[in-house]
Amino acid sequence: MSVDSVEDIKKHIKVYIMVFVALMVLTVVTVGVAYLPLTVPIAITLALIIASIKGSLVASYFMHLAAEKSAIYWTLLVTAAFFLVLMFVPLLTTLDTISR
């Protein structure tokens, strides 16, 4: 069992507080964007961008994924490969020339 020093713990607490403040600011930005007179596609795009930033902050720091670089890269690579396969399946079915 490792014992962290007081300075180490204070550094972690400082990071957590900064991430919490960033999440609160982004929440206020989300509410502010909701009151802007935007078209639906632009509003949805902005909402998804803000939500993606907030989700990545939560996953990176509160779920301790910031230190898991190689696992994240492999997961993204596999996800991208499956995405490409699933995007080309309908194309390949329309190009199928074998008649029954």
Automatic annotation (TrEMBL):
Predominant localisation class: membrane
Mode of membrane association: Multi-pass membrane protein
InterPro entries for this protein: Caa3_sub_IV, Cyt_c_oxidase_su4_prok
Keywords tagged on the record: Cell membrane, Membrane, Transmembrane, Transmembrane helix
GO cellular component terms given for this protein: plasma membrane
Pfam families: COX4_pro (PF03626)
The keyword Lipoprotein is annotated on this UniProt entry: no
Transmembrane parts of this sequence: 15-36, 42-64, 71-92
Subcellular location: Cell membrane
Protein name: Cytochrome-c oxidase
